[in-house]
Amino acid sequence: MEPQMKRWKGSEFDTDSWVAYPVLSDEQSQDVELVEAFAAPIVNKKETSRLVRELNGLYPLDGLQHIKRVRACKEKDSPHPLEVLVCLVSDAPDRKAVSIDSLLPSDGVGRDGLGEPFVVKVPARPPLTRPQFELASKQWPTSFHEDKQVTVALRGELFSPPQKAAMHMYMMSAIAAARAGKEMGMEAVGAVVVNPATQTIIAVGHDCRGDHPLHHAVTVCVDLVARSQGGGCYSFDRYPACRFTSPTSDTFQNVPDAEGSSQPYICTGYDLYVTREPCVMCAMALVHSRIGRVFYGTASADGALGTKFKIHSQKDLNHRFEVYKGVLSKQCEGLNKLDNHIL
Amino acid sequence: METQGEIKATSAESFYPRDEDIEKWMANAFDMAKDALENGEVPVGCLMVYNDEVVGRGRNEVNETKNATRHAEMVALDQLLDRCRHSNLDVRSVCERTALYVTVEPCIMCAAALRLLNIPVVVYGCRNERFGGCGSVLDVSSADLPQTGNTFKCVSGHRAQEAVEMLKTFYKQENPNAPKPKTRKD
Ligand SMILES: [Zn+2]
Ligand SMILES: [Zn+2]
């Protein structure tokens, strides 16, 4: 345990030792799904705009607005410079048809300038991230409405050095709480709730499941936040490292609030830092508590914010939030090892 | 119910409430829900039964505690844990023979909490389309989560229409002038 402590101390202010990556929804992180389509060479370039217009009328490619109808030919020595998407294979009158005549009924599209069709694969859905866009574009030219924040976040560059320094400090508090809990016989998991608008720590908690099986670090923090607002239903007084700060009026005055009141409401607008990925119970407790963002150190086997589920981006739930992982990942992994040693 | 000897002979897996138990305890849960509705509270009734005895009973306490996790099931689980502590009973062996009766499908959070405590059976009335953790939004009850306790069986649909009607009535009578996020229910 000694060398670990030394390494930990050595990197105390080294924000370059970790990178926070976003935990994106399944839709944002899945592979690019492809559908088969018939394309055909445009052998007479002058016919291009007419062909596109007439093909759009006959085969409008509904739901595939992200696909460009015409692409430049990949091979430089190709006899024709352009290729056009005729229709999806599933929309073709005869799916095995390989002739342009069978794809284009007598009226509607004049076949002048079109060569014989061949099968291509095109992306079934608009790309949501730059990696998806790059994969999709390899198959067929695709348009992309880029969410710049996601692109920057995927590069691990969303947070500025001062922001990272603050995140570092908050996760250090969570790690300290985890160690304090461990010393009292609990699992080494710690969490901190922060009001990012005022940069104040609202609550610090650690795992207390030795005394109550549902008192995970996150549920402890949720109740400590409730206590900071005059509610709450448990006392964590016997754990010195579990504490809360009641927001004073002056720390709240300059916080703009959509409701027009300065009263804090559960975890609305707050950030949670937790040393390891929350379980299903804790993740859903954060949905109910309307947490602002969650930052965690390392993934966990049954984790519900990325590993087993992505409850923060779950369809049908009425509250979604951003999740980032990797904050002080090495130090947080070290905590897991403490637990495994005991087990 | 059964005698002590029979209880020991049956494993946790085979533990299953009989029809007359369901009838009786769900009637009790519905009475709680009705009572809550009449008092302007979230109409969810919930009780935990061990050895033919109620060991936990809960109603939604979100508003008074300012803790959004105080769903009826969590309150009832706390009562069960308190009782074990006071009576010096082993939590796990009690939980493994405890059934939860609740008028509405437990949410994702409560379903995970029930797993963590190894509750084997949940009997519920209507589905919870917004937050349900027994299949409506996610199926936490049967998901492969080896570090999250045990899976549990669900018996659903008992007096479902009645449970839905109570929820509808509650939503309708909510004060439209109240600040929106302050009224929360599971
Ligand atoms: Zn948890
Ligand atoms: Zn619940």
UniProtKB/TrEMBL annotation, chain A:
Gene Ontology molecular function, alphabetical: tRNA-specific adenosine-34 deaminase activity
Cofactors: Zn(2+)
PROSITE patterns: CYT_DCMP_DEAMINASES_2
Entry keyword set: tRNA processing
GO cellular component, one term: cytoplasm
Residues covered by the CMP/dCMP-type deaminase domain: 165-324
GO terms classed as biological process: tRNA processing
Keyword hit for tRNA processing: yes
Organism superkingdom: Eukaryota
SUPFAM superfamilies per UniProt: Cytidine deaminase-like
InterPro entries, per the entry: CMP_dCMP_dom (IPR002125), Cytidine_deaminase-like (IPR016193)
Classification via CDD domains: nucleoside_deaminase
Family under the similarity heading: Belongs to the cytidine and deoxycytidylate deaminase family. ADAT3 subfamily.
Protein name as it appears in the record: Adenosine deaminase tRNA specific 3
Species per Swiss-Prot/TrEMBL record: Seriola dumerili (Greater amberjack)
TrEMBL record, chain B:
GO biological process: tRNA wobble adenosine to inosine editing
Cofactor: Zn(2+)
CDD domains to which the protein is assigned, alphabetical: nucleoside_deaminase
SUPFAM superfamilies per the UniProt record, alphabetical: Cytidine deaminase-like
Gene Ontology, cellular component aspect: cytoplasm; nucleus
InterPro entries reported in the protein's UniProt record: APOBEC/CMP_deaminase_Zn-bd (IPR016192), CMP_dCMP_dom (IPR002125), Cytidine_deaminase-like (IPR016193)
GO MF terms, alphabetically ordered: tRNA-specific adenosine-34 deaminase activity; zinc ion binding
Ranges of residues in domain CMP/dCMP-type deaminase: 20-145
E.C. numbers: 3.5.4.33
UniProt entry keywords in alphabetical sequence: Hydrolase, Metal-binding, tRNA processing, Zinc
Domain of life: Eukaryota
Reactions that this protein is recorded to catalyse: adenosine(34) in tRNA + H2O + H(+) = inosine(34) in tRNA + NH4(+)
Role noted for this protein: Probably participates in deamination of adenosine-34 to inosine in many tRNAs.
Family in the record: Belongs to the cytidine and deoxycytidylate deaminase family. ADAT2 subfamily.
Protein name per UniProt: tRNA-specific adenosine deaminase 2
Organism expressing this protein natively: Seriola dumerili (Greater amberjack)
